[in-house]
Design brief:
Length: 293
């Protein structure tokens, strides 16, 4: 190779090296990336950050104004048939230690297995204890003839003595193998129960049984607190005096304690609780399992 050819090759390599990165991508002379210098990029990013921050603040403020002037504070925005519960409350249950499971399983000889259930019921009833500590003058009279003319702005006191032996002193029966569960109705604003047969009772009735014949044999007798006997059958009672719920301060929904007095040991018992004597409630069964070891 001659010196002239070698010099030409060096010139070619130098040219290719200088032009390997397109100038529109990066200009080495002006230090510009995609046509913008570093300072220009910083200013551009600051502009868009400020723009979108102002846009977010504007829509947040607009949403706050809409909610402030359209959502009432003393009652839900959606009531009646427009509510999520379709104006039909359903049955709920305590204890609910595991949301994903409906089995209440424990061993009478191992407190660690039933303490979570006891603690769950305690936490649920704590609100009742706090509200009941207020003077009686703050509550409506919900018994006898006065119950018909009670002040709807006041709430009825729900005494935990109504739950009978289902109390914290005896661990709600879990330590003795006679577990209690608390049944409650979902709170629905403005809902007033409509009895199916007012000659039988004006109150809502509830009854629990096995889901199939084998469970009926294993479940044993069930006691309810408070209760009412209708045509020889004992039911739990949700008193009509506690309705309607109108967002009153300190409102306490009625609770029924169901005590399983002699469930068969070491067997999973399928339980079904059903509402009776009410037209305008969700009649879907409340299903759960109990297993006592």
């Amino acid at each position: 190779m001659s010196m002239q050819e070698f010099s030409d090759n060096l010139s070619t390599l130098s040219y290719m090296s200088r032009h390997r990165i397109p100038s529109w991508l990066y200009d080495s002379k002006s230090k510009a990336l995609f046509g913008r210098t570093g300072k220009s990029w910083v200013l551009c990013l600051l502009f868009y950050a400020t723009y979108y921050a102002c846009l977010a603040a504007f829509f947040t403020g607009l949403l706050w104004l809409v909610l402030y002037f359209n959502v009432p504070e003393d009652h839900p925005a959606r009531t009646g048939k427009q509510s999520l519960l379709d104006f039909k409350p359903g049955l709920g249950l305590r204890p609910t230690v595991e949301v994903q499971k409906s089995m209440i399983k424990f061993s009478t000889g191992d407190p660690q297995t039933y303490f979570p259930h006891v603690d769950n019921i305690d936490a649920f009833l704590q609100t009742y204890k706090d509200v009941n500590a207020k003077p009686d003058s703050q509550f409506a009279s919900c018994k006898g003839k006065d119950a018909d003319t009670k002040d709807v702005d006041k709430v009825c006191k729900f005494s935990l003595e109504n739950l009978g032996p289902c109390n914290n002193k005896n661990s709600y029966g879990y330590s003795k193998g006679t577990p209690c569960v608390l049944l409650k109705l979902n709170k629905v604003y403005g809902w007033m129960p409509s009895p199916e047969d007012s000659s039988v009772s004006n109150d809502i009735l509830v009854n629990c049984s096995g889901q199939n014949p084998a469970d009926d044999e294993n479940i044993g007798p069930v006691a309810y607190y408070p209760n009412k006997t209708v045509k020889g059958i004992t039911y739990g009672v949700f008193s009509n005096a506690y309705y309607p719920y109108l967002g009153q301060s300190g409102y306490l929904a009625p609770v029924v304690a169901a005590e399983f007095k002699n469930p068969k040991r070491h067997v999973a018992i399928l339980v079904r609780c059903v509402l009776y004597n009410v037209k305008n409630a969700n009649k879907d069964d409340l299903n759960f399992e109990i297993m006592v070891d």
